[in-house]
Each structure stands twice: as C-alpha cells, then as structure tokens.
Specification:
9 helices, four-stranded mixed β-sheet, 29% helix, 15 strands, alpha+beta, 331 residues, single chain
Length: 331
C-alpha cells in the first residue's frame, strides 16, 4: 500500500475519570482537571517514592505508587490495570513498564502552569491508517502476493523438534529447514523432543482474553479511543472508528473476558479474542529466554506478540519480522 493510500493522524487518546475526560497520559494533563483536583494530584506525586529518593520497588503495585503517587495509583492506574489484566497485579513484573509514558514531576508541574502537556508522549504519537478499508487490508494484500505459499484453515497442534516437522489437527505434516512460530506456545498440544522443564514452563505463560463489542450509533467523542478506570463499567476502553475514517459509524468496547456479562460471542457484533494480551508476569522473561534459546539451536524461532509472548504492537512486530527474515536469508 503506497503512502498515498493512508491518512496520517496525531494520536488523541483520553481518560475518563470522575466524569471528567482528560488527555492521555494523565500525569502530563492534570492541568485539564479543576484547580482543586490538580493540587491534590500534584501533592501526591510530590510525595511519590521516585521523587523522595526511595529505591525502585520490584512489585507492580508498589512500583505504580512509587512512580506516580498514591492518588493516581488509587484513582486510575490500579483500577484500570485490574480491569485490563486481572486482580492479581503483583503477579506482573516491572521490567515492561518502559511502555508507559515518561513524565517527571517537574514536567507535570510545568504542564499545570503552562496548561499544555510536557514530557515523553505515549507510543504512536502519530500513526497512519488506511483511507479505505480497515487495517487488515495491509495483510490481505501481502497474502495476495504470496498466495501460492499460504495454506488457510490449518490448525497447528504439534512441533517435532527432532525432525523440524509441524503437524496439523487433520493429520497433515510439514517439514522445513526453519520454522517460525507466531502463534501462542500454549496452543501446541505437543512439543515433541523439548525438555520437560521447558515444556512445563510454557504452561506457566499467562494471557488475557478480551471481548470486542460493536454498537452502531456514534458517540460524541473527538478522541480515537478513551480509557475507563471506573470499576462499575465492565469495559476498559472504547474505540471510535469514525475518528480514523469518517465513512464508518459506531463504536467498539473492549472488556476482559472475566468481566463480560451475557453473550461472549455471537459471530456478528460480538467477538471474543481469546488471545488479546500476553501477561508480563515476573517469571516470564526467564521462561521465554530459555525456551527461545533452546528453539533457536534447532532452527525454530519465536516471533511477535505470541511467538515471543511480549506486548508488541503491530508496527514493532513487522520490524522484528523483517529483521529476522534478513538474518535468516543471510545464512
């Protein structure tokens, strides 16, 4: 798809908190709250451990309080992350939190005084989206160009590391010099030839499922999406597609599977994504490091959000795929 087929957008994501909608990230946009609320947040951030010389904690909840202060933790970060990832937030590590925007207390204070955001902006501060069709158009066109090399409707259930063979649920077998795994490792019913301790570790990998639900009416929103921390609302995010393509209507909600009430999936306007987000648990890095290193020695490579069990967005996944392809083609 040439650049002429894309529109470029400045990211506009927002947070709804106490019936007030402010821009994301919260700590750079406290100035959008009423003055009294601003003072409360600023006082709390000033007391945060990262601003008083306390060492960085290792547990997720402690890290949130240490970085952002108790008030943002209690009112936004902890309830929102519980809605998205589950109640046991201390099962998560802190090694992945560089994904969060980086805004210092000084920058937060400056933003309140100047009434504009300071600090590092969140990921994808600008992004492209197709003028026509949906984002899947990119992959459909790629597939058309290599269609003779693709087989659809095959459910991979096993890898035999001794012969570099994958087996499908209908008994089909495919042997290759190199295998690239992009599906969740826990979906394999058998990893033949892998050491038992590594196979056991694979079963410890955790993830969340998310329901996507479509509503046909348009909401009066200028943002592309909004985050909701209120525990009384089942969903954690609303996406407004008409703000990335004016020809579309309606909105989507995202709700973690355990919080869904009623129909889980209807094949029309409700879809359950069984693998939405890999959970960055404390033990995950060691599990994946050992698994991927052992596999690479046998010309099997994990790639992408599920092959590496990392919370990658699609742009980074594509970059990693191109780098791996270049590396393997040199061999």
């Amino acid at each position: 798809m040439p650049e002429s087929e894309w529109n470029k957008y400045v990211r506009d994501s927002r947070i709804e908190l106490d019936d007030i909608t402010v821009s994301h990230p919260l700590e750079a946009n406290i100035w959008q709250f009423p003055l009294e609320k601003q003072v409360e947040y600023l006082e709390s951030i000033a007391k945060a451990g990262c601003n008083s010389g306390e060492p960085m904690p290792e547990k997720f909840i402690d890290w949130i309080r240490w970085k952002l202060g108790d008030k943002i933790a209690e009112e936004y970060m902890l309830p929102y992350n519980k809605k998205m990832f589950g109640e046991n937030l201390n099962d998560l590590g802190t090694y992945w939190l560089e994904k969060l925007p980086s805004v210092s207390f000084k920058e937060t204070l400056l933003s309140c005084l100047a009434k504009k955001a300071y600090g590092k902006q969140p990921g994808h501060a600008e992004f492209y989206y197709p003028k026509k069709f949906g984002y899947g158009e990119v992959w459909l066109r790629m597939a058309q160009n290599i269609s003779k090399h693709i087989e659809y409707g095959k459910n991979i259930v096993e890898i035999d590391f001794n012969t570099n063979t994958v087996t499908t649920s209908d008994g089909g077998k495919y042997t290759a010099e190199k295998i690239i795994v992009t599906i969740p490792w826990r979906e394999f019913t058998n990893l033949h030839g892998i050491p038992k301790e590594i196979a056991d570790d694979v079963q410890k990998l955790k993830h969340t499922a998310v329901q996507i639900k479509y509503f046909p009416e348009n909401l009066a929103a200028q943002a592309q999406w909004t985050y909701f921390a209120n525990p009384a609302l089942s969903y954690h995010r609303i996406i407004y597609p008409h703000n990335v393509n004016g020809k579309w209507n309606g909105y989507w909600t995202e709700t973690r599977a355990e919080r869904v009430e009623g129909v889980l999936h209807d094949g029309k306007t409700i879809f359950m994504n069984d693998y939405a987000y890999p959970l960055n648990t404390i033990e995950k890095p060691k599990i994946m490091e050992r698994l991927l290193a052992w596999c690479r020695e046998r010309n099997v490579y994990g790639l992408g959000r599920w092959g590496e069990h990392s919370h990658y967005n699609s742009d980074l996944t594509v970059e990693l795929a191109m780098a791996l392809a270049e590396k393997l083609c040199r061999r």
